[in-house]
Amino acid sequence: MVLDDLGSSLRGTMDSLRGKSRIDEDDVQEVVKQIQRSLLAADVDVDLVMELSDSIETRALEEEPPGGTTARDHVLKIVYEEMVDLIGESTEIPLEEQTIMLAGLQGSGKTTTAAKMAWWFSKKGLRPAVIQTDTFRPGAYEQAEQMAENAEVEFYGDPDADDPVEIAREGLEATEDADVRIVDTAGRHALEDDLIDEIERIDDVVEPDRSLLVLDAAIGQGAKDQARQFEESIGIDGVAITKLDGTAKGGGALTAVNETGSSIAFLGSGETVQDIERFEPNGFISRLLGMGDLKQLSERVERAMSETGEEDDWDPEDMMEGEFTLTDMRNQMKAMDKMGPLDQVMDMIPGLGGGMMDQLPDDAMDVTQERMRSFEIAMDSMTEAEMEDPSIIRSDRLERISRGSGVPEERIEELLEQYNMMKRTMDQFGNMGDGDMQRMMKKLQQQGGGGGGMGGMGGGGMGPFG
């Protein structure tokens, strides 16, 4: 994922302080040099890097760590706070009637982002619509129409029209009943005069409540000029960073945000409409530093459980009170699948993302997802009785399931071992009293943060030190 190298490098820098109760000037300067190298390698603007590193060095040398705080955790807290301050607050996106216009170069991901944002608003209880005005790029209308269909939102476009300004005007009239209208504009391969002229004319007609600049995370240092020209032309209220599942460095997009004096609104990764999240600076930097993001994780869990429950009439709380079956396990797996790629989910769990992920092979999560898929295929070949009581699966049944699913017997045995382990865990939860549960959750909180007693992630988006 984008910025993985930066996150891994920053975590390695922090780990160099592990075990130290105090740090001297040489320690601080070495840490700052490593942070500078990490940020510059990630394509963050040099001036921003120097500004950030100077602040970190000053605070690390002048501030006394609170009693009982290790040197590593003290510097980690400073790095966290300074990086959050550098990125700034999230763009204000109220859940109310509004018109949003998207701008950006061709290939930045505007059309996909429009559908993703519409899907996000729909999950918040609003009725969104996408208006496609791009008459320049071949296939833009068809892509936008398909993405809007995938998001299950209203769509307007005219494949036979050649005036994007007129399409925008007619689109606003056709979607007047929508709560949120998202206007997707044309891009070019570079900031050509006709692109600027066109988007200014659309801006005059649409009169958007917000204009968002869509930036590919791979943009690099060229993002500064792009951001500046769009800011001068139409004014930029926020930035949506796309393609965060790639291998680009990502620092250029962060630099562009600073250049416009705006903030980040959304983060996009993947090709499906669900691959979007509201930018929360606390959680974003927490993940980068390996401290998780429980707020974003809880939102994904809630959404996944809701969608799984609607489809399967399944209440996960029932598992705590009755027998845990393979059917329950399959529902859990479906819910996990709806939460997104496993590496993203792992990054959100304090103590499991970050440093632990750094130690895994690059394909570790792919292997895990491949195992989950084979588990589901095997379960599709089981009878209802076997799903409800897996203990009846002996060698003859194992052979039949393997033959019917095409899944090797060894993999089905792995599935049953995984089931038995999860069942024992559920039984332990079920036998817990309220006091036991509270003690366990407190212990998890204490172990959850960046290590060294930093505590769990704060609620309400406050971050790990809130």
How does this model look, in words?
With 466 residues, the chain is an alpha/beta fold. The protein is built from 21 helices and eight strands. It has helices at 4-15, 25-41, 46-62, 71-87, 110-123, 140-151, 164-174, 193-206, 223-233, 251-260, 281-288, 294-312, 318-321, 326-338, 342-347, 355-358, 364-380, 384-388, 395-405, 409-430, 434-448; strands spanning 98-103, 128-132, 154-156, 180-184, 210-216, 238-242, 264-268, 276-278. An eight-stranded mixed beta sheet has the order 3-2-4-1-5-6-7-8, with helices on both faces. Helix 10 (251-260) links the parallel strand 6 and strand 7 (264-268). Helix 3 (46-62) runs antiparallel to helix 4, helix 5 (110-123) packs parallel to helix 6 (140-151) and helix 12 crosses helix 14. The chain is flat and about 70 Å long. The two termini are 27 Å apart. 42% of the residues are buried.
